[in-house]
Design brief:
This protein is α/β, with parallel strands linked by helices and about 270 residues long. It folds into 2 domains: about 5-185, Rossmann fold (3-Layer(aba) Sandwich), CATH 3.40.50.150; about 195-265, Orthogonal Bundle (Helicase, Ruva Protein, domain 3), CATH 1.10.8.100. Helix content is about 40%, strand content about 20%. It contains 11 helices and 9 strands. It has a 7-stranded mixed β-sheet. Strands 1-8 form a two-stranded antiparallel sheet. Helix 5 (about 110-120) packs parallel to helix 7. The protein is elongated and about 60 Å long. The N and C termini lie far apart (about 65 Å). The model has no long low-confidence stretch (mean pLDDT about 95). The chain binds S-adenosylmethionine. S-adenosylmethionine (SAM) binds next to strand 1, helix 2 and strand 3.
Length: about 270
């Protein structure tokens, strides 16, 4: 391969046919399905996607790779140039729902996930490759060290399943860590009632602001008013001395609804 990979774009190109097959299989594509790929790179996944469906939209930041993609002159390949974090997705992806397939740039995978959560109506199914540690965090249970903001928010909206663990040798150049491919299937209903989505997210972020502190102090540190916190914790029957990282999704739901009830009274 003559192309010089760029570390700053998190480039690790997949070359293991078995892993490629598993990713494409997990996408469960039918000919009519519209597909988006973030970071097509040299196109190993893109080629397989184009074999299965009539149109693939790709989003790529690297100008050299974009030039290579244009050389293909494939009318079924729609190339969006730019930073996936900055591009306005609803303006580009105008025919949802899409299936999203991506071997993500690991340096920005969490930021991409937050953006995916904000635009989740665009995607019917997602097959995503992460650094193993990040993938495990998304599936983590309450009370474990891996459990965090993205675990709660992703588990609220998606059923997440493991597809395959991928060793560094499957990539060129090999990353230092193992990788994990996961499927995300949007739930017909969120796992629990978030009450108000904006507030739910704010409280989840607040609960994890200071992981070593108690839930009460962590929420305080996130800027929420002490009187409201105390009233809401009492109403939701949550111990103010517990740590935010022990809260289950039903407890985050109860906490959000308690804040809403208090605001309604005030
Ligand atoms: C891990 S590589 C995957 C490449 C290819 N899909 C594969 O599996 O071999 C990540 C890809 O994302 C691209 N990328 C990195 N940061 C990006 C960004 N902010 N916006 C869009 N693409 C980005 C990289 O240039 C690279 O092509």
């Amino acid at each position: 391969m003559s192309y010089q990979t760029k570390k700053r774009f998190g480039q690790h190109f997949l070359h293991d046919p078995g892993v490629i097959d598993k990713i494409i299989g997990a996408a469960r594509l039918e000919q009519q399905q519209r597909v988006v790929e973030i970071g097509p790179g040299l196109g190993v996944l893109t080629d397989q996607l184009l074999d299965k469906v009539g149109r693939v939209d790709v989003i790529e930041i690297d100008r050299d790779l974009i030039a290579l993609l244009h050389q293909r002159q494939d009318e079924h390949l729609i190339i969006h140039e730019g930073d996936v974090l900055k591009l306005p997705w609803p303006d580009l992806l105008i025919q949802p729902p899409y299936t999203l397939v991506a071997n993500l740039p690991y340096n920005i995978s969490s930021q991409i996930l937050f953006k995916l959560l904000d635009h989740r109506h665009l995607f019917a199914r997602m097959v995503l490759m992460f650094q193993r540690e990040v993938g495990e965090r998304l599936m983590a249970r309450p009370g474990t060290k891996d459990y965090g903001i993205l675990s709660v928010l992703c588990q609220l909206w998606y059923d997440i399943n493991k597809v395959v663990l991928v060793k560094p040798g499957a990539f060129n150049p090999p990353p230092k860590v193992d990788s994990l491919v996961l499927t995300f299937i949007p739930r017909a209903e969120p796992r629990v009632d978030p009450g108000d989505e904006f507030l739910f997210k704010k409280l989840v972020k607040g609960a994890f602001t200071q992981r070593r502190k108690t839930l009460r102090n962590s929420l305080l540190a996130s800027g929420i008013n002490a009187t409201a916190i105390d009233a809401a914790l009492t109403r939701a029957q949550i111990d103010p001395g517990c740590r935010g990282e022990t809260l289950s999704l039903p407890q985050f739901s109860a906490l959000t609804r308690a804040f809403l009830a208090i605001e309604a009274v005030a």
